[in-house]
Request: fold
Amino acid sequence: MREILDAPERPSLSKIRVFPCQHARTDSLGRVEVADRDDMPLGLHDPRAEARRTEAVLDPSAVGVVHKAAGQRERSAAQSHAIRPVTSVVIPAIMADVEEVEVVVAHHERAILRVGDVFLKIDADQTRTDVEVEAMAMAPIPTPEVLWRKPPVLALAALPGTALGRLGEPSTASSAAWAAAGAAVRMLHDAPLPPWPGRSLGELASHLDDECEWLVTNGVLPTDVVTINRRVAEAALRPWTPVFTHGDLQVTHVFVDGDEIIGVVDWSEAGQGDALYDLASLTLGHEEHLGDVVAGYGTDVDLDLIRAWWSLRSLLAVRWLVEHGFDPSSPGCEVDVLRSRL
Reply:
């Protein structure tokens, strides 16, 4: 198992404060101020979010406190964009000479900051961090290096390379890179099972019932879109042989350099699960590369069940994305995936 180092202790009591929006406010403890749901659907702890870059501004009102006045990087039209950004995040300053902090993700349960070549993950539920650390230690494929852990902060080394793709945008990665991703997933699925269970069929079925009812009752999606996709999705709710799954294998979580897989990030949803769910998550919105992934995976795959998981994952995602300030109706994203089933 990989050695996990404690965070280096520093005598300074300085803090880094990150304000993703110009008119941010924070409470006396500097905690994140959001009022969002915390019952995130399967595999959605870190939704698509463009990093909000910040510039260092010295705050003369507090010794040892660095404020980051927020400017927001322009998003592409194809990306899911934040409608209601998180106001602030405060973490202990354990790194010196910080010139810039990127807020990669920030919502009610988690914040991820990039400081130079280090990612700092702050999770309200440390059991998720426990899972992430143990899963990365067990995984037979490349993962980020754990630099140190000082709850609630986990520090990970940034991976080189680029993401295999992004939801809502055409992937520039080669077919060989997609096939290599499929081969990496197969290696993971062939590994020994982690000791903790995944979600049960009963939990998934109940969650699907709740989300479909909400989507129709609130007029978020037309009834026919929900009905047809629910019928498709229910095919995924059948007994399966559990394998070691990543659990949130979004295309942005796989990093490549040319045709080589450099690493896979964000393991907090890892556990025992259906192999086809990982394959579906990887190819959601990138159906044109499904053949490449299956070729790399190297075994027969029921494509109808992959499509069932596309519908199921998208139905479960819409409410969470809407209520956390993201737009699932952006081109090529979840709503388009659901409409494509018609």
User: Anything to note?
Assistant: The chain is about 30% helix and 20% strand. Confidence is low (pLDDT under 50) at residues 1-40, 44-92. Residues 303-323 form the longest helix (21 residues). The helical segments are 126-138, 175-189, 201-217, 223-233, 275-283, 290-297, 303-323, 334-339.
